[in-house]
Amino acid sequence: INPGYQSWIGNEFPLASTYNGVIQSFDVWFGFGSANSMVMTIDVFDATQTVVGTSETFTTPTEDWLTVNCNDIPFSGMFYGMVKWDNLSSSTNYFGIDEDGPNSGLDLEWMYDGSAWDKFSNMGYNGGVFLLRATALVGGDLKTVELTAGQKPTGHITNTAALTHIDGYFDTKN
Q1: pTM score of the predicted model
Q2: Is 77 exposed, middle or buried (0-12, 13-18, 19+ CB in 10 A)?
Q3: Which listed residue, 8, 65, 67, 109, has the most CB atoms within 10 A of its CB?
Q4: CB within 8 A of 81, min separation 6: which ones?
Q5: Percent of the chain scored above 70 by pLDDT?
Q6: Which of 87, 109, 128, 62 is nearest to 4 (CA)?
């Protein structure tokens, strides 16, 4: 990402269209760079790639996870969680990506430059999934679940709801 340009980097969360709720926060992992005071946000785009909400601002941690709060951003089915860079001339920490884990083959990583969307795997990089997970309240009774791109939801959701909404995955915690 060149200095002076905006870019969004993140994941597609491929949920069934009947799965809905509000996103309360994202957990992101950054490392392998030099920290600076660049202010960032996470934008949530719906399935039509339209922004439906933005997180609180944050600066990148070094070699660590960070929880970024959201103000109940609504979603219904598939959405994109995208970290937004307003790139300055200085460097920042790198956004972590999993290129060989169990969900990397799903190729859920995306980049948006303000006009076009593309996958990193189409640009000569390894496919994968960025280290970005969402915590959301879902369903009519708004139960808390953790949404990780490519994985079944975790938290408090009934088996029936999970089977209906998450293509056959179910939660064994209930």
Answers
A1: 0.79
A2: middle
A3: 109
A4: 10, 11, 13, 23, 26, 42, 44, 132, 134, 149
A5: 74
A6: 87
